[in-house]
Amino acid sequence: MSKVLKIGRAHVMAAVGVVIGLLVLVLAFQDVWFRMAIRPPGQFVTSHTPPAPDYSKRTSWALFPATQPPGAWETPWGVDVFFIHSVSAYDGDAWNEAIDNPDSRKRLDNHILPNEAAPFLKAGPVYAPRYRQAALEAELQVGADSDGAFEIAYDDVLSAFDAYLKDDNRGRGILLVGVGQGGLYATRLLKDRFQSEDLKMRLAAAYIIDAALPAEMIGRGISQPVCQTHDQIHCVVAWKAVIADDASARRRFLTKSPVWTADDKIATSRNRPLVCVNPLTWTTGSTLAPRAAHRGGAKAMGPADLDPAIIPNALTARCAGGALNIDRPSSPALQPSSGWGAAYKTPEYNPFYADIAFNASERARVASAWLDQHGPKPALPLPPAQVLDDAPIHRPDGVSDPLGGN
């Protein structure tokens, strides 16, 4: 009997050892397997590209104001937010995700936009287009396939911006915001659209968040300077937050992030000095900003959660080597998750929610006052033309004929 028990115990221990070994193997290679899972099938040139969005339809916009804001001919001069969201598609079905993909759309509407875009609602009405975002793999492995995917996504963003400018902007000021992959497109949009004197004047500021902005773009592709104070306008803010003790994330950002160059090419961030503005001080210096300077992060829980609980004094921040180094936040709500592919997915919280909300509204206020003083007020639009079905024609003899009479 004793011998049987020993054999049974040995089998159990062996099974436990196998299970533990498998768990260790899964943890060790989960990043590799995640990357395999999100790799789109085939090459970009042979993949199926979903239909382009129609930006005259509200269904092509993730956020759009319910009522039309006043035009720039009124006072105060208003400011809009044109917002380009980060990646929400992780399934690897194609190099570009259709805007009606249910999983991607749910993740975007319920988690990403409430944390990324909502802080800017305090600055002005937000216009956020849905676009055929490039697959997450394109961000992680810059190359021939990803180049084509980025171009498709940018074409959508450019079309959305032109439609907004033509039909909805009405001469107002603009805060341009891009987060993650959206920051890549905001960089090129600055180069392609904000070089005219009119739009340079009306650009309140550009925020390139959690994306790599090469310093070489400033003064070459982008004419606006880097913001140096908390209330400077007509300038660019950029940062990518990395947990200070996460060496792999820091290395990945500094060497493998996609960037748009001045000659309209996609490259990696390797060996490129990157712009970093500290969102606790709104300066480019390397001074450590203490926890006391942190207005607060938040984790919004859905599209209706427009006033999430703010967690202040949760982290320090310092610009170093092109990255924004932050210590691990004290609140669990602001700490990165450790699940399947979490190191690559868009965070579903915002460590600088209150800092961004306050700063964006401040820059919008300053820009509005500046435009009221220095900007040429556009003329009031002409009323719509009236069609007269029966317009009389007066003859010299005093007889009036209807239009078309003999």
What does this structure look like?
The protein is α/β, with parallel strands linked by helices. The chain has one domain (39-374). It contains eight helices and 13 strands. Strand 8 (258-260) and strand 9 form a beta hairpin. The longest helix has 37 residues, at 2-38.
Q: Which properties best describe this structure?
A:
406 residues; alpha/beta; 6-stranded mixed beta sheet; 3-stranded mixed beta sheet; 13 strands; globular
Q: What's the number of domains?
A: 1
Low-confidence stretches: 21-28
- Mean of residue pLDDT? 89
User: Helices and strands: which structural class?
Assistant: alpha/beta
What percent of the residues sit in helical stretches (DSSP H or I)? 25-40%
Radius of gyration: 26 Å
Strand order of the largest sheet: 1-3-2-4-5-6
Blueprint of the fold:
Layout: H1 2-38, E1 61-63, E2 79-84, H2 102-116, E3 126-129, H3 136-140, H4 144-167, E4 173-179, H5 181-193, H6 197-202, E5 203-209, E6 236-239, E7 241-243, H7 247-256, E8 258-260, E9 266-268, E10 317-320, E11 323-326, H8 353-374, E12 392-394, E13 400-402
Parallel strand pairs: 2-3, 2-4, 4-5, 5-6, 7-11
Antiparallel strand pairs: 1-3, 8-9, 10-11, 12-13
